[in-house]
Amino acid sequence: MIESKARPAVSLNSVHKRYGTTDALIDINLSVEPGEVVALVGPSGSGKTTLLNTICGLTIPDSGEISISGQSLTNIKHRKTLATLVGIVSQQYGLIPTLPVVQNVLAGKLGSWTNLKSVLSLIWPQDRKQASSILSSLGLDEKINERTSHLSGGEQQRVAVARVLIQSPDVILADEPVASLDPALAESVMGLLSRITQVDNKTLILSSHSPYLIQTYCSRIIGIRQGRIIFDMPISEINDDIFHDLYETNQILQR
Amino acid sequence: MSIAFPLGLILGIIASGKIIDDDSHLKVWVIVPTRFLLALMRSIHELVWAVLLVAALGLSPLAAIVALAIPYAGILGRIYAELLQDTPSQPILALKSTGASPFKIICYGLLPLSLPDMLGYTFYRFECAIRAAAILSFIGIQGIGYQIQLSLHDLLFNQVWTLLIFLLVLIVVVDFWSGKLRRSLTE
Predict the structure, then answer these.
(1) pLDDT digits (tens, 9 = 90+) for A66-80
(2) Theoretical Cys-Cys bridge with A103: which of A99, A202, B36, B71, CB 3.0 to 4.6 Å?
(3) At B178, which CATH number?
(4) Where exactly are the structural domains of chain A?
(5) A103 to chain B: which residues are within 8 Å by CB?
(6) In Å, how far from its chain's centre is CA B166?
(7) What confidence tier does A220 reach under pLDDT thresholds 50, 70, 90?
(8) Is the pLDDT of residue A210 over 60?
(9) Cβ–Cβ < 8 Å for A85, A91
(10) How far apart are the C-alpha atoms of A219 and A231, rounded to whole Å?
């Protein structure tokens, strides 16, 4: 595989996905360059989560082609190769409630660890310093040994963010990563994500319902409704009317 | 039980199908035979296994141990498979996306998620195994049941009572141990 800087970080070519009788994604064409911070917006059920899951290979599209950094997902045979390219913070966090926080964060390393190291880490957490520095940047360093189920929703969400940060893939996908956080925390977590994207030349694609956060931290905005991309523009061109249209027309359609 | 537990765990993990990708054609060829094996192991009662194994191995404690281990591994394996299938899929998907191998998914996802329930059931089965062991020794294998039988034949009822109280104490101790372990896991 030849690596090239000119290749888009993420590219989707006429991707379709159906669930039963409903079309979740219809003819999605998309290209995202390295370093971009892209916001996905759209009403609930519009296909944002399906799109993110498709990009990271958790959902297999019915047709169409997806590539990350120029490599087609269908050609990537090993999960650990994929994990260096793309990682996701899902809406439900996907944490293991019975494990301590540190273990859930270090789970981001499982792709690169050997089996022996993974088992050892359950007893003596490996790379603990790295985990604790990421947790402290998210304001969670005191909770490192706490059982994850004892944490609040907002704290668990930040643990999920910490896990993808320690995994450190080229493309970070985040499904409403700050939905459970208060405004101040939401802003600091968004700031951290966009800073890491810029400093390490990564790519960030996130979904959000907060126009303020999107306009502050994202460089590009993509609107989705009923599985179709409705608009795709630089953040400077967005205005309130476009937002309102995206959300309100949908309610009329449902009546 | 120390044979039945690991054996049941391994077979249960395989039979749950949680570590095999959904689209893999291996799925049918691995899961169905494993389930059949588990069914075969538990469909024959430990007493029947004991009679068969005494014929094969003689009146040795080994025969009793194997006779208990086989059906108990079958029962535990089936329950473990069901407990593992009931684990939420979201955390498992999240672990897959971090690049974790099936083995790591077991260690970091499946086991931590289902361990408290598994332990409770394993201890319950341990109790059953203690009772079954007493019964097995009625067919002539050395054990507490054999002692009870001897004492009964000699009409030494005080000995019979002592042995029965000993059985009770064993069960109470196991109960206490199980409660303690479970509490330490679930806090």
Answers:
(1) 999 888 888 888 888
(2) A99
(3) 1.10.3720.10
(4) 10-210+217-254
(5) 108
(6) 23
(7) very high
(8) yes
(9) no
(10) 14
Which residues constitute the domain of residue B181? 4-186
Tokens of A206: 């996130």
Which stretches of chain B are DSSP H helices?
4-16, 26-43, 46-57, 61-85, 89-97, 102-105, 111-136, 144-153, 157-186
Environment class of residue A153 by beta-carbon count within 10 Å: exposed (0-12), middle (13-18) or buried (19+)? exposed
CATH superfamily of A10-210+217-254: P-loop containing nucleotide triphosphate hydrolases (3.40.50.300)
Does an H or E element contain A101, and which? helix A101-106
Q: Name residue, tokens 């909770």.
A: A143
Flag whether residue A119 sits within 8 Å of chain B, measured between CB atoms. yes
Q: Is A233 on the interface with B (CB under 8 A)?
A: no
Residues 6+ apart with CB under 8 A from A148: A95, A96, A97, A98, A99, A100, A101, A104, A156, A159
Do residues A55 and A171 make contact, with C-beta atoms less than 8 angstroms apart? yes
Q: What is the DSSP secondary-structure string of B47-86?
A: HHHHHHHHHHH-S-HHHHHHHHHHHHHHHHHHHHHHHHHT
Q: What are phi and psi of A149, to 5 degrees?
A: -70, -15
Q: Among residues A87, A84, A14, which one has the least CA distance to residue A55?
A: A87
pLDDT, tens digit, 9 for 90 and up, residues A153-208: 889 999 999 999 999 999 999 999 988 889 888 998 898 898 888 888 899 999 99
Under the banding of pLDDT at 50, 70 and 90, the label for residue A1 is: very low
The position carrying tokens 């191995």 is: B57
Contact B96 A94 (CB under 8 A): no
How many domains does chain B contain in total?
A: 1
Of A58, A81, A122, the CB nearest to B107: A122
